[in-house]
Amino acid sequence: MNLWHIITSSTPQLLAAGFKYTLPIAIVSFILGLVLALLTALARISQRGGLFNVVKWICSFYVWLFRSTPLLVQLFIVFFGLPYLKIKGFLPHGIQMNPVVAGILTFSLNTGAYCSETIRAAIESIPRGQWEAAATIGMTRRMALRRIIIPQALRVSLPPLANSFISLVKDTSLAASITIVEMFEVSQQITAENYQPLVMYTLVAVYYAIACTVLAWVQKYLERWTSRYVTKAN
User: Fold this and answer.
1) What is the pLDDT of residue 229?
2) Number of domains in the chain
3) What residues does the ABC transmembrane type-1 domain cover (predicted)?
């Protein structure tokens, strides 16, 4: 089969899968993961004691669990394993989810665990004097966090967070393992028809590389934009 014919006939299907599943799953998962990451990071740095220590422990356990186990295993547990979590009278059929929902849930939890450490480290990197200065002008800890600390921490954490999103785009290829017809799954289906695995897998790798390169350019722009006042001050 002609190489150019394979590329031109496969490209529309691959791009359609990318725009229908790969990018939407990555974007939605990353947004949900960021929200979860911020809440987890704030809980872990909180100075509250008492029963809130239980919340801190749960957050720490969550981060440890998802950072210590492979993403593929997590996908299998959520999609294939939870339906067997049957509780008589409460979950007689286990927890069954649509593949896309299961994928987004798993990617969100995994992203949240990694990004929470990034955000926590960024917040703790802000000099202690910033907190003290906010307190001297009558700000509560919550006000200082919202108006002073988090804006600075977001600038610091932008590069690693952007890297996490780029990694997530590539990791969506694992969604093929739970029957989501994203780009990699489409390339496998086409390979089963034309028997050209080297061509097809190279082609899908090129499209992933292009997408990640564009995202890297966006990352650089955002870094320059968020650091514009810092650069001028220096």
Assistant:
1) 63
2) 1
3) 19-216
